[in-house]
Automatic annotation (TrEMBL):
Localization per Swiss-Prot or TrEMBL: Golgi apparatus membrane
Highest taxon of source: Eukaryota
PANTHER family hit by this protein: GALACTURONOSYLTRANSFERASE 4-RELATED (PTHR32116:SF7)
Gene name of the record: GAUT4
Enzyme class, first EC level, given as a word: transferase
GO MF term list: polygalacturonate 4-alpha-galacturonosyltransferase activity
Enzyme Commission numbers on file: 2.4.1.-
CDD domains: GT8_like_1 (cd06429)
This protein's name: Hexosyltransferase
Biological process (GO), any one: cell wall organization
GO cellular component, one term: Golgi membrane
Family: Belongs to the glycosyltransferase 8 family.
Amino acid sequence: MPDAKVRHLRDQLIRAKVYLSLGSTRSNAHFIRELRLRIREVSRAVGDATKDSDLPRNVNDKLKAMEVTLAKGKQIQDDCSAVIKKLRAIVHTAEEQLRAHKKQAMFLMQLAAKTLPKGLHCLPLRLSTEYYMLNTTDQTFPNQENLEDAKLFHYALFSDNILATAVVVNSTVLNAKDPSKHVFHVVTDKLNYAAMRMWFLANPPGKATIQVQNIEEFTWLNSSYSPVLKQLGSPSMIDYYFKTHKANPDSNLKYRNPKYLSILNHLRFYLPEMLPKLNKVVFLDDDIVVRKDLTGLWLIDLKGKVNGAVETCGESFHRFEHYLNFSNPLISKNFDPHACGWAYGMNIFDLDEWRKQKITEVYHSWQRLTAMEVGDTPSRSYNIWNRTMPIDRSWHVLGLGYNPNVDQKEIDRAAVVHYNGNLKPWLEIALPKYRNYWSKYIDYEQPYLRDCNITP
């Protein structure tokens, strides 16, 4: 094995530390001095090595010298029960340290995922300044007559991340057979509205049409209409998502992300009201990259279903029993614990069927009836779990934001790849092997990016 010698040396260090702590060997001053010398030599030789080729040339001499010293320790200490007791104590201590490090690593990973890099903080400030310096006539987008043309291909994208939104739009347009038939409906928050508009004014998406709206333009979307808005502003909900240090650690830490407090994360449930003249729309998350033409999505017969999506049954934790509370009689009565979940991030929605089946009302009723977290996965499950048409898995491949072992063949066949998980491609913690799929759609020579020191 390429690390056989490294393992042997580390085992020697463990045995040496056992002898160093036993009463019978500690009383032998000459042996203890020799043992400490050998521990220093082997520790220096091993260092941070992970394979044998990392070790120094003279490592064999250190290994043999340590074996001689350990043999002396064995002669001095012949009480096996004392050695076993010490080894058990070492194992117990190591396990406790491992648990503590895992807990800390999970917390730090969540913290890194929630932290906005300096460059992405600088970008909207720079863009907003430029936008408000424009004349009013220069603040409008062309081809706005396409926004309600149901014959075109429409996309909905809700985000406060300008660079991520740019990648989604760029990758879709560059892989489209006829970009002029594609229309993007981007909604952002008040803070990023001017910056988002300025980005696409300065970097128009070719022949495609784009619309950028401020969520506050939807005056009908208020707490008297939407139960989720009332929940989002409640003190208990804010405490749940922000004061995680007070919460008991649990396996659903990933759902305790403050992003779920943003109404942008729930706008998908109001698509029919937002786009009243359209009959179909493709929803795109801001952490996806389009790699092939998507027009085939509009040809899929959803057979009366509301949502077309890739199922995620291949992974057991996406069964309903793993994230719905079946101790609640409302849940156990209405849901199958073994039912498949499905992927969100690239979905084709039939808005006509949505209106006909009154899905938004169904969503509101579940919000009122159940004391659930507002997190993404639970809320979508209550809404349209049995109104979803499975589509071919090649349309949407997930896992690039947490899984370093996604099948390369699946990625190559995928129309859309999704960085779901904490390791987003715009963060330093991203998986390097997947970053290029995202960064290839960014022009890092763009002046705004250079000014904010945003680099590959």
